[in-house]
Write a structure and sequence with these properties.
Blueprint (H helix, E strand, L loop, with lengths): L13 E6 L2 E7 L8 E7 L4 E7 L11 E6 L2 E6 L4 E5 L1 H4 L11 E4 L13 E4 L3 E4 L6 E3 L4 H7 L7 H5 L5 H17 L3 H16 L2 H10 L4 H4 L32 H19 L2 H20 L6 H13 L3 H23 L15 H13 L7 H17 L3 H10 L3 H11 L3 H9 L4 H12 L4 H18 L6 E9 L13 E9 H5 L9 H10 L8
Antiparallel strand pairs: 1-2, 2-3, 3-4, 5-6, 6-7, 7-8, 9-10, 10-11, 12-13
Helix pairs in contact: 5-9, 8-9, 8-10, 9-10, 10-12, 11-13, 12-13, 13-14, 14-15, 14-16, 17-18
């Protein structure tokens, strides 16, 4: 083109396309000398336009050899001379997020010898048709080969939003998303993964429907996120989702929800790390999960209880004691601040745990983590977890569940203290006893924990328990006559044909009939005195 013609735009250099319901003007060679592509969004509603200039490296922009089309909301630049096709997503080009890749995806042609779209006998007819001029002149409408496009994209490029906008089946898109994430996780590329998470959470924050949908949908993933019961024999596959993926409504399909992040990426890789027994991989997945949670909170979004559970579990299993302690302290501080702001009627976007669906189940899962641990952890971390779980249950009004969980975790002092605070309300005490926290449960835990105490401390512990039970359930000390089976092994005159067990009637407390007294833990005089206090018969032979 001559210098006089440089400012002239020919009709063959301009095209109009509809992408995502908006009209775009596409100009070939907008940067001069046949280089660059000019994209102009025509927004009639707001009476404005947005312009972007895009440059494709090493591409011949000869108007005679370049065709422009639109397939599946993608701008397609077909170069016959270079025998390549470039795919450009205008949503990425006009995005304000610099972490989104703006480079076109370059797709080369298939194997040589095949009939290709670059043959002279094949003519392109915008927006998405090819005409074979030979024989009967067949007309083809083409679509996107998504596997080929994904394969041609750079591994580190965040094309997750690009994939979510495609019209392919959702199962296919999910498999590509999982493959892309797995590739970076396998190479420990945390730097690029953090960029991806930033892009995903920013898109998620702009979709209120997705946030509301996530609010309750992740509760069912709590048991999976605790990783309790998972061992090296478990069937784990990082290419498969954890359970059937819960699909949100159509308004959320272009957003990767917290539920999908858990089922498709975080949980499969966390389970695989546990199965392999790989501490390094556990720490990596823990770092990724923590970063995802932080990104959500940075945008004033509420992380779901399943994600918070997974973060705690991974830090616990990876042995990241300091980071876990810091995380739990931050949670307690945030809760205190939120409650205080509520009391002062100050605005806050944070929620109390009791306002989250599945909060009570979350707290119970924390107790499960402590009581089902395969490795030894510092007592301070255990106390933090138990304290947080107890606080949440109390916030939810589940006092009876809190007491039961404390007894399961052998925290009898905390259980007694909690019941003592509620002893003034007869209703609460009745509720606690009604759901299984009976006097015998306290006694069994006291006997279990006494094995690790000195005898003086054992005596104090049982005396404290006796004082508590007298107020908590006085009926457990009422005397009752019941038949008791006793051994006759010491009977020297016993016949070899006689049974070793006899049945006698013994009068002792209802508690004594239910639980055996741990005589072996005390000296004779202490044993007699404690047996008498709890209503045990002196001797049953």
């Amino acid at each position: 083109r001559s210098n006089a013609e440089e400012n002239i735009i020919f009709p063959t250099e301009v095209s109009l396309f509809n992408f995502y319901g908006s009209i775009y003007c596409v100009e070939i060679g907008s940067l001069g000398n046949g280089h660059g592509i000019g994209l102009t969004e025509l927004d009639s509603d707001s009476s404005c336009i947005r312009v972007r200039q895009h440059k494709i490296e090493n591409l011949s922009m000869n108007a005679e050899s370049v065709s422009v089309g639109a397939i599946d909301n993608l701008l397609c630049i077909i170069s016959s001379d270079d025998k390549v096709t470039h795919f450009i997503d205008v949503a990425d080009i006009f995005s304000d997020d610099r972490r989104v890749p703006r480079e076109s995806i370059k797709v080369s042609e298939l194997a040589e010898g095949d009939v290709t779209i670059y043959d002279e006998k094949i003519s392109f007819l915008p927006p998405s048709y090819f005409l074979n001029t030979e024989d009967q002149g067949l007309l083809y409408q083409v679509g996107i080969s998504l596997p080929l496009v994904v394969k041609s994209a750079p591994p580190a490029a965040c094309i997750i939003p690009f994939l979510l906008r495609r019209k392919a089946p959702k199962d296919t898109i999910r498999s590509f998303v999982m493959e892309r994430f797995s590739a970076l996780i396998d190479t420990n590329d945390l730097c690029n993964l953090k960029k991806w998470v930033g892009v995903i959470t920013k898109q998620y924050a702009s979709n209120e429907r997705a946030i509301k949908w996530d609010y309750e949908s992740t509760v069912s993933l709590l048991s999976k996120s605790s990783l309790v019961g998972l061992d090296k024999t478990a069937d784990v596959n990082i290419t498969s989702t954890v359970g059937e993926v819960m699909i949100p409504d159509s308004a959320c399909v272009e957003t990767l929800t917290q539920t999908e992040m858990l089922q498709m990426i975080l949980l499969p890789h966390a389970m695989a790390a546990v199965k392999e027994g790989s501490s390094e991989k556990l720490r990596f997945v823990a770092s990724l999960s923590v970063h995802y949670l932080i990104e959500l909170e940075r945008l004033f979004l509420i992380p779901c209880v399943a994600l918070e559970m997974l973060v705690i579990t991974l830090l616990w299993k990876a042995g990241e004691q300091d980071e876990l302690a810091s995380f739990l302290s931050a949670r307690e501080t945030q809760r205190t601040i939120t409650r205080r702001r509520r009391q002062l009627d100050l605005p806050t976007r944070n929620r109390l745990y009791s306002e989250n669906p599945g909060a009570a189940a979350f707290a119970e899962s924390l107790f499960l983590i402590v009581t089902n641990s395969d490795t030894e952890h510092p007592s301070s971390i255990k106390k933090q977890l138990i304290s947080l779980a107890t606080t949440i249950l109390m916030e939810c009004g589940a006092t009876s569940v809190a007491v039961k969980c404390l007894l399961t975790a052998d925290q009898i002092k905390d259980a007694i203290a909690l019941c003592s605070k509620r002893s003034k309300a007869n209703k609460d005490t009745a509720e606690i006893k009604g759901v299984g926290s009976q006097a015998k449960d306290f006694f069994r835990v006291a006997a279990k924990t006494a094995k690790e105490q000195k005898e003086d401390d054992r005596c104090k512990s049982f005396y404290h328990l006796h004082c508590f039970l007298k107020q908590y359930d006085p009926t457990c000390f009422e005397l009752d006559k019941r038949k008791v089976k006793v051994s006759r092994m010491e009977d020297k005159n016993k016949s070899t044909f006689r049974k070793d067990i006899s049945t006698v009637v013994v009068e002792q407390s209802a508690l004594a009939h239910e639980v055996r007294f741990p005589d072996e833990l005390f000296r004779t005089h202490h044993c007699r005195r404690l047996r008498s206090m709890f209503g045990y018969a002196e001797s049953v032979k």
